Amino acid sequence: MEQYHEENFEAPIIEEEDHPEHDDIIIDDDAKSSVSFTKSKKDTRVQESDTILSAAKKTGLHIPSACQFGVCGTCKVKKVSGEVHMVHNGGITQEQIDDGYVLACCSNPLGDVVIDF
Ligand code: FES
User: Fold this and answer.
1) For a pocket test of ligand 1, which of 62, 65, 84 has the largest count of ligand atoms closer than 8 A to its C-beta?
2) How much is the pTM?
3) Furthest-apart CA atoms within the chain: distance in Å
4) Which residues lie closer than 8 Å to 22 by C-beta, 6 or more apart?
5) The domain 32-116 belongs to what CATH superfamily?
6) Ligand 1: which of 68, 93, 107 to mutate, judged by most atoms within 8 Å of the beta carbon?
7) Angstrom distance (rounded) from CA 42 to CA 84
8) Any residues with CB less than 8 A from the CB of 8 and at least 6 apart, and which?
9) What are the extents of the domains in the chain?
10) Rounded distance between C-alpha atoms, residue 56 and residue 60, angstroms
11) pLDDT tens per residue across span 9-67
12) Which is deepest, 16, 77, 78, 99, by most CB within 10 Å?
């Protein structure tokens, strides 16, 4: 019995406060948004699930783009007003975001959005 060793393991009890709150936005496919392009004087109504890039294409505008998944930064445009939901992969810096820039290829308009393009 001097060499006998016993261990017991059990799963930790997870408390409600241990779960981090996520502030991620769920895009509503049925919600409509409007996107206006100030320099081009064009605007359109789109779904929130559309991107700023696809809204531009819908109006006949060509925002330069390449990767179309938020890496290269080619589609960077300045947002004048409104909110977007942007999920990028490093194609924009936090400083640029703070200055009002968004990546058109991976930004969904939430409500009315005005873009300086
Ligand atoms: S096209 Fe590459 S980040 Fe938008």
Assistant:
1) 65
2) 0.80
3) 87
4) none
5) Beta-grasp domain (3.10.20.30)
6) 68
7) 18
8) none
9) 32-116
10) 6
11) 887 776 766 655 656 778 888 889 999 999 999 999 999 999 999 999 999 999 999 99
12) 77
In short, whether 70's Cβ falls inside 6 Å of ligand 1 is: yes
Closest CA to ligand 1's atom 3: 70
Whether residue 114 has its Cβ less than 6 Å from ligand 1: no
Residue written as token pair 């975001």? 97
The alpha carbon of 62 and the centre of ligand 1 are apart by a number of angstroms equal to 13
User: Mind listing the pLDDT tens digit for each residue in 20-34?
Assistant: 565 677 888 888 999
pLDDT of residue 26: 82
**Cα 80 to averaged position of ligand 1 atoms, centre (Å):** 19
Atom of ligand 1 nearest to the CA of 53: 4
Q: Distance between CA atoms of 83 and 67, rounded to whole angstroms? A: 23
The pLDDT of residue 16: 64
Per-residue confidence (pLDDT) for residue 27, from 0 to 100: 83
Is residue 81 within 8 Å of residue 49, measured between CB atoms? no
